[in-house]
Write a structure and sequence with these properties.
two-stranded antiparallel sheet; 109 residues; single chain; mainly alpha; 74% helix
């Protein structure tokens, strides 16, 4: 990581240098500050990753709820269809019974 020397404003790579090559100033304070900055940067990256995971989880939760609602709707429609089919079959059987009775009445009388 590169920083400016606080005494002479030289641009220094503190990972390679212990002292400012321009003025000879000790860079340990700059190194500690750079470590704090790096730690804050890593903390922000972790927080960002966590936020992204939470967002992905929330999206998954929404998709799951939509799927559950769709399945309930599907099962309700199937239940209604089954009830309507039973009613229709009952009506058809009643009509067939009436036709059979009428047919027998015509031939018997």
């Amino acid at each position: 990581m590169k920083v400016f020397c606080k005494y002479c404003d030289a641009y220094i790579d503190i990972e390679k240098e212990m002292f400012c090559p321009n003025c000879g100033a000790d860079l340990s304070e700059s190194r500690r500050m750079a470590q704090r900055i790096q730690q804050k940067k890593q903390a922000k990256e972790i927080e960002s990753a966590f936020s992204q995971l939470k967002l992905n989880y929330d999206q998954y939760e929404n998709y799951y709820q939509e799927a559950v609602t769709a399945m309930r709707t599907y099962h309700q429609c199937n239940e209604n269809l089954l009830q309507n089919s039973r009613r229709a079959m009952t009506i058809i059987y009643s009509v067939l019974a009436l036709i059979s009775c009428a047919f027998l009445a015509v031939f018997i009388l």
